[in-house]
Design a protein that fits this description.
The complex is a heterodimer of chains A (about 150) and B (about 425). Chain A is built from seven helices and five strands, in the order ααααβααββββα. With about 150 residues, chain A is α+β, with helices and mostly antiparallel strands. In chain A, a hairpin with a 2-residue loop joins β4 and β5. In chain A, α1 runs antiparallel to α2 and α3 packs across α4. Chain B folds into three domains: about 210 residues, 3-Layer(aba) Sandwich (Rossmann fold), CATH 3.40.50; about 80 residues, Ubiquitin-like (UB roll), CATH 3.10.20; about 90 residues, Up-down Bundle (de novo design (two linked rop proteins)), CATH 1.20.1440.230. Chain B is built from 17 helices and nine strands. The chains are: A alpha+beta (about 150), B alpha/beta (about 425). Chains A and B meet through α2, α4 and α5 of A and β3, β5, β9 and α13 of B.
């Protein structure tokens, strides 16, 4: 069941558009904000409100990488692995993060703090290598700064 | 030098509506609504030679003219800004959306009036958090000042504008995939025809243009097509936001006359290569354009000049390959991107790109086979335009086919020496 708060927020979003279909993704994103990730239960709950079958909604949710269908940590590190960041050495940054957190890509650290995900070009190529943690950008990332960046998250 | 797109931008903050108006903002909209018919606007934009800035370079005025001009009885018409910037190596639309969002919005309103659209959407990339915040503010300001909503500036014309923030996937930048995504479906491309101008969103006419394209429109309307064409150093009108990334001294973006040479961009604006690195080649307009080499440095960065040397202007944002970076590794990185971002709808694309990635991966790792280069060339042919629903796979093959042409010796060395000769060179 959606909570009253979830329902209220999602319905407000659906009302913003001429056709509610435009807000399906936004509805998923709101639920994700509330629950951190979208479980099978979440798909079923939301499908009722959107008047769809759970399968229909899951087909949409599964298509978009920013909708998480598996549990994630408190913070998500999106590391850009596209061409400019590759040229500028993102792989060294990635290796450092993986060994420091003891996880691989698409994994969550044992303390539940960080999930590490690759992300396609985030348009910060003039400041490569670049990464995002949650909604915050970190640009021109250097090896010596990574630990400090990670430590700044609770 | 005139910089209509970015001249007013202060790096780090956005222009609010009052500042934008002081600099002549929304005067073009007043001029359009109070003295010009939709046909006048179409004629002016056609005369300006404005070509789409998203990559394909389709003439904007012509694109708009395909929207049926009949009355509104047929139901709503839509206009959409493709603000889903995600081409690898590209960072230009965010410059406008973060720095001067009203310029894009004003261009969208004028474009909407020209095609008599009822509803406009900004299709925005989820990762562009700052663009989102600033566009939200700009939209609220524009509604407040009655540049949006019913009866804009007393003209009788009305338009609603909304932001749709996506949730990832490169393919959503393909216009028919974008339309599916806006309809709340999986963002997969559609077979064309019908073209979106006839049957776009929910079966109604829709026109999709790139964010930078819209930013040109107010200036064309305010100053005229001849002034606009005069800004350019080539046949295509206007200025262009160019940019460079890679091992150059000052990676960044600059608004320059359309038709500026790659040499000027690299040497004068980006300060040349970093010390210890030599220019070997470049993708002139994002990850899905063909390589050009040092022989092409004096090529003008415009649509026709770059296609004459076998590449494309694309987004106009350059990725530089230096002599310490492995061209096979670079092409592998790009192919991996395109394979991952394939929507999975048509088989040549999802299967072909994964296969191409596997071949490149084993060559890079030193396990390449003697016939692998022929196999890659086969993929370049079989994923060329005409074999797939959309331009995703053909675009992915552009850097591969041109790397095979210009850097063949590097591929052969990988296979012959059973290792990447660039490992440990950096």
């Amino acid at each position: 069941m959606l909570t009253d708060d979830e329902k209220r927020r999602i319905e407000a979003e659906l009302d913003k558009y001429e056709r509610k279909e435009t807000a399906y993704l936004e509805a998923l994103k709101i639920l994700q904000e509330c629950r951190r990730w979208i479980s099978d239960e979440g798909i079923k709950d939301l499908a009722v409100l959107l008047n769809m079958t759970p399968d229909e909604l899951d087909a949409i949710a599964a298509f978009y990488p920013f909708i998480f269908r598996k549990p994630v940590g408190r913070h998500i590190i999106f590391i850009c692995d596209s061409v400019s960041c590759w040229i500028m050495g993102y792989e060294g940054i990635l290796d450092h993060i993986m060994s420091r957190l003891g996880i691989g890509l698409a994994e969550t650290s044992a303390d539940g703090k960080f999930t590490l995900l690759p992300v396609s070009c985030i348009g910060m190529c003039d400041h490569a290598p670049a990464l995002m943690i949650d909604r915050e950008l970190h640009l021109d990332v250097r090896m010596e700064n990574i630990d400090r960046i990670l430590e700044s998250y609770e | 030098m005139e910089k209509p797109l970015t001249g007013h931008i202060r790096r780090g903050e956005m222009l609010g509506i009052e500042e934008y108006e002081k600099m002549g903002g929304y005067l073009a909209l007043r001029k359009a609504l109070h003295g010009m018919s939709p046909q006048d606007i179409l004629a002016e934009v056609k005369a300006s030679n404005l070509r789409g800035r998203g990559g394909a370079g389709f003439p904007t005025g012509m694109k708009w003219s395909f929207v049926p001009a009949d009355g509104r009885s047929a139901g709503p018409k839509y206009l959409i800004s493709n603000s889903d910037e995600m081409e690898p190596g590209t960072f230009k639309d965010r410059v406008i959306m973060e720095g001067n969002p009203h310029l894009m919005i004003e261009g969208m309103i004028i474009g909407s009036y020209a095609v008599q659209a009822d509803i406009a959407y900004i299709f925005l990339r989820w990762a562009y958090v700052q663009s989102s915040t600033r566009l939200e503010r700009a939209l609220a300001e524009a509604y407040e000042k009655k540049y949006l909503g019913r009866n804009i500036l007393g003209s009788g014309y009305g338009l609603e504008m909304r932001i749709h923030t996506s949730a990832g996937r490169y393919i959503c930048g393909e216009e028919t995939a974008l339309l599916n995504a806006l309809e709340g479906r999986r963002g997969i491309p559609r077979s064309k025809p019908p073209y979106p101008q006839l049957s776009g969103l929910w079966g109604k006419p829709a026109v999709v243009n790139n964010a930078e394209t819209f930013a040109n429109v107010p200036h064309i309307i305010l100053n005229g097509a001849d002034w606009y064409k005069g800004l350019s150093r080539s046949k295509d009108g206007g200025t262009k936001i160019y940019g460079i990334s890679g091992k150059v001294r000052k990676p960044g973006w600059w608004e320059l006359p359309m038709g500026t040479t790659l040499r000027e961009l690299l040497e004068e604006h980006a300060g040349g290569m970093q010390s210890g690195f030599t220019f070997r080649g470049a993708l002139p307009g994002g990850g899905s354009t063909d390589f050009i080499t040092a022989d092409h440095l004096d090529t003008r960065m415009d649509f026709d000049s770059l296609s004459r040397v076998g590449s494309r202007l694309g987004t106009g944002i350059v990725i530089v390959l230096d002599d310490m970076t492995c061209p096979v590794g670079m092409v592998l990185n790009l192919t991996r991107f395109f394979a991952r971002e394939s929507c999975g709808w048509c088989t040549p694309c999802w299967a072909g790109l994964q296969w191409a990635e596997e071949i490149l991966d084993r060559i890079e790792k030193g396990a390449g086979r003697p016939d692998d280069l022929d196999l890659l060339a086969f993929h370049c042919r079989m994923l060329a335009p005409g074999h797939t629903y959309c331009a995703h796979a053909p675009g992915a093959m552009e850097p591969v086919q041109s790397a095979l042409k210009y850097f063949r010796e590097d591929f052969e060395r990988h296979i012959r020496e059973r290792k990447c000769p660039f490992k440990n060179r950096r």
